[in-house]
Amino acid sequence: MQPQPHDVNRQGHPHTGAATLKKLIDNLEFVTPWRTFRWYYGQKHYSGSYWSSTMRSHVIYESRLELTRLLYADFAREVRAIFSQPFLITAEVDGITRRHVPDFLILRDGLVPLVVDVKPRQLLTRPKVAFCLGWAREVVESCGWEFQVWCEPPEAELANLRFLAGYRRDWLFSSELLEEVRGSDLQGATLGEAFRSFRNWPDELVRAAVLHLLWSQDLSTNLGQILTERHQLHREPATLVGTGLGTLPRPVVKPDCGDGEADFPQRAGNGGVGGRVGGAGVVRVGVGTRMRYDGEVVTVEEMFGTATGNEVLVKDGRGRRFRLSLREALTSGRAVVIVEEPGPTSDDAGETASVVLGQLDDDRLHKVRERAAHLNEVIYGFRSGSPDLAAPGEPRPQYAPGIPKMARYRAKSEELGVGLRTLTRWIGSFQREREAALTRDLPDRSADAAGVGRADPRWVEMALEIMAEHTDASTPSQAKVIRSMRPRLEARYGKDQVPIPARATAYRWLSELEKRRPTFRLSAKRNRDIAARPSGVYGKLRPTRPGEYLLMDTNRLDVFAMDPLTLRWVQPELTVAMDWYDRCITGLRLTPVSTKSVDVAATLFQTYHPRPAGKDWPRHAVWPDHGVPRTVLLDRDAIEGPMADAANRVTGQGAAGPALVPETLVVDHGKVYVSEHITSVCQRLGISIQPARLRTGRDKGPIERFFRTLREGLLETLPGYKGPDIYGRGVNPEGEAFFFLNELEAIIREWVAVVYHHRAHDGLVDSRVPGLELSPATMFDHGIARAGYIEVPRDRDLGFEFLKTDWRPIHHYGVEIRSCRYNGPGLNGLRDQTSPYTGPRAKGRWPIQVDPDDITRTYFRHPETRKWHTLTWEHAPAMKFPVSEEALELARRMAVHKHRYPDDESAVAELLERWNLGLGMTMSERRIALRMAREQSAIELPATDAADEVAALSSVVRALAADSTAAKEQEGESEPGLYEGHLAGDDDDDGELEGPDHESENPDDEDDFYADALEDA
């Protein structure tokens, strides 16, 4: 086979000098993957997007095995770029055009480009896989590049690398702390000593900083064993084993057994695990023993004793000889001994004694034990079988040790009233199998046993086949299945070939088969979910620290709330963010009728910046303001005297939940979760995305269970609860709706903080202390003490990162979005200029952050000063409160029916007038009105003006509060009159004369006077 390469798309030069490598990276920087991963119902692998610290962006992967290769590449210091699904290889092999897309292209310093294909180890010997990888290797190596096949890495090494990957985002760590750790002499110190060497910093931050330096390889240790505090630190780069294969194993079509030997199937329970024999319980390994080694049958020809253990010389079917370590061969899973001698096996027909005796009721078990006592007496002379446990009066004269055996047999035969041959048969069986052998002569009760033991296997197979046909259909009745059984059995096996049970028996057997494949009792949807369960062992993502996996989901609540605009009921939706490691709820948001991407972003923002705790919440429900474990929280109740007020000001009100930096976001395929808005937010914040499989709720099991806990623990007790389905619905739950949306959200938030976070969860366990009951709050402290704490960014402008980015040009009049013009002083100096941003989306335009729930303003960050500026809509002064995108579009559509040439200002005014009058609204109008009725914005954004920054200072706040108090006292002394607006003073500017809500349409006008004065000067 000689492949002739037609084309290696996006092929680079084989030499990789510094200039060539940079040019290759630049050429591939904005290239999209050749193909993306597919999603389909029933898939077994997990695909997602990994945020790479090397690429500073997302890199897609198609399976968790591909994710392991990404982790190794991201950890390697010589790697400069990683590209997923990089190109299509086309070659002509044996006259047929072949195509293949490799998994990764990795560019490294001083080395040729590396092309990687990821395959599980057990697939490498399949002929098709080996053939494809073989010709792909030849094509890649003909270009001067390197080709690698990646398989499963060592478990301990992978676990350490996955743990350290949580500390790969360098901007989350204090540069001062990192420099202090780098500058200290930690050569030869243990991890535990490093964690405790910097007393000027909190232990949790030091632990996280040291682990970050292990990831960046400023420090290194042995990653071949699970990390402990006893690991020694070094300065040289870390060494990893990995599983990159330079050569492929020979493909196996069928084992060559020789001499007409048939293929040897694995017995149940063996599974090819090394060291387990395939036949007898004990087998001798020596010269002539045959084994299956890596799929081939080999024969042991000679054995050697060495200092490291026994070795064997084996010969395969083609006459090749090689030496093996006997211990390594039998324990690695690569070799299985072929047994040819008879002996006890695991697939014998008989059950063990514990299984046989465990099926007996108390009466039958008493009879077996009584018969065994009689047999012990006739054999040994004592009912217990031992003279050390002799009962009073034992041994009896007729069973004394000196009495002949047949005399004892005849005495026991007469005592029990059975024949001598029967007693002899009992004794023989009893001596071989003890008490288990005595159950065979008891009355058979299999007819009364549960299950379908007496059913014809063909009848059972047909019943399960018909039940499976109704998986996607409506729920059938048992009578329908029974009626369809006879004609289908006769058509397949012939008339009267399969015995048909009585009707009552058929019903009983179908009830038993219902346990195997639910069809009749549960709902059709639940039956489909059960039918989709995997047949093997469930896999599970196991988080190792807080923040590693953040689960997010939205669920419609089973309770009605009040519409604050129309005072009518509405069924809200709850969006929740949960940390998988400790089950803490890090964010939640209640929305009327529908959830948008901005609501998901707002919930994610609460993970970084939790909402403040309620004023009346108990102390145990309040979290520190920045997520530091409560063990280091200042106890305000223990402070007395003049320092009490100062402590209250320092510690603040507290937060409603912990602050976390999520590493991976686990979501479903809802439109709001896979939107460009959420993906871009995760990419900017360094968050990987792991979508769950389609219609597989167990992939997000903890958060699905939370919704049930919320319903059973809180919602059931509230007025307006409607039940989980139509069968549990009350007569008029809509009429009982009592709480407004914001009140219901406050109730849920308080219940989570007070009850849920401090109640023990069965799913929270510490493997080192089995049976220990842990609550989410306790588990959070446990995780911080174990893995350290990654500080949440304290940037006050972090909220702008969660808004939607819209790329727009800056004109002389500002920017235009959705036919709305926005302007502000922050655009000065950039008007009519091309932006320095590059890429397929930018195209010379500028990034504008947009809040879909408030179109009256947008936000822009100046590329030079890196400060945020507010851009105001030209019609914003006419609005009394924020207006959403949907409200504007609806106002325009309504105005078109009334006016021929409507404008935005009049359209919105008429919309507000219609809502305030309470006229009849359509469903879309009502949904938009509900979103506008929320009292709080989706994301808390800081003020962007310099004057607002000064006003936010605590000293200014206290001064303004004092002035406000004095002004109120003066107003109280005078007689109140009509308010006539602001009065002009000597130094009033135009903004004060126009009122507090006025915003000039031309922001440059307010600076004209001072600009002229500066020119005169």
Summary?
This protein is 33% helix and 14% strand.
Please provide the count of β strands: 28
How far the N terminus sits from the C terminus, by CA atoms, comes to 86 Å
Radius of gyration: 38 Å
Q: Specify the helix fraction band.
A: 25-40%
Sheet with the most strands, sense and barrel status: 6 strands, antiparallel
Strand order of the biggest β-sheet: 23-26-27-28-25-24
- Portion in strands: 5-15%
Helix-strand makeup class:
alpha+beta
**Count of DSSP helices?**
29
Low-confidence stretches: 5-16, 254-281, 445-449, 627-651, 915-921, 946-960, 966-1017
Mean pLDDT: 78
Shape: globular
Outline the fold blueprint:
Elements: E1 4-8, H1 18-28, E2 48-52, E3 57-61, H2 64-75, E4 79-84, E5 89-93, E6 96-100, E7 104-108, E8 114-118, H3 127-142, E9 146-150, H4 155-164, H5 175-183, H6 191-195, H7 203-216, E10 244-245, E11 290-293, E12 296-306, E13 309-315, E14 321-325, H8 326-331, E15 335-338, H9 353-358, H10 362-380, H11 405-416, H12 420-433, H13 457-469, H14 478-493, H15 503-516, H16 524-531, E16 549-556, E17 561-562, E18 569-570, E19 572-579, E20 585-592, H17 597-608, H18 643-651, E21 664-667, H19 676-685, E22 688-691, H20 701-713, H21 741-754, H22 776-787, E23 804-808, E24 815-817, E25 820-823, E26 846-850, E27 857-861, E28 868-873, H23 885-898, H24 904-917, H25 923-932, H26 946-951, H27 954-973, H28 990-994, H29 1008-1016
Parallel strand pairs: 8-9, 16-21, 21-22
Antiparallel strand pairs: 1-5, 2-3, 4-7, 5-6, 7-8, 9-10, 11-12, 11-15, 12-13, 13-14, 16-19, 17-18, 19-20, 23-26, 24-25, 25-28, 26-27, 27-28
